[in-house]
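Q: My labmate handed me this sequence with no annotations at all. I'd like to see what the chain might look like in three dimensions before we decide whether it's worth expressing. Could you predict it?
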Amino acid sequence: MLLFLDFDTSEDAAGNCTFDAMASVAVERLPALEAELAAVVAWATRHTGEEPGPLDEGHAWDCDLTASRETSQAQQARLDPATGRLALQPAGDVLARITLTLAISADAAFAAAFRTHFQLD
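A: Here is what I predict for the chain of 121 residues:
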């Protein structure tokens, strides 16, 4: 069901769960990742009927989202045997990637429904 987000799950002694996912895509794939992320959050909101909020304040779920943009460019590398120094020359286009991390904290009931809906077990 999910193409980009691959969740790892941890559980505390009280039965609360945290679902952590990270996805890194080329900039041109970002709209598809955004759509998947929006679908997960929309499901959570519909399922509970509430926006995310702190569990210790009685909310069923909460989430934290971070993003970073990285650029890279392949380099042609040559070691100068006389000097022992590395010479680098750009070899190709500059590529950009966006990495998103999503952490969802949930009470036990929400966690069970989340696992079932997104087929995490």
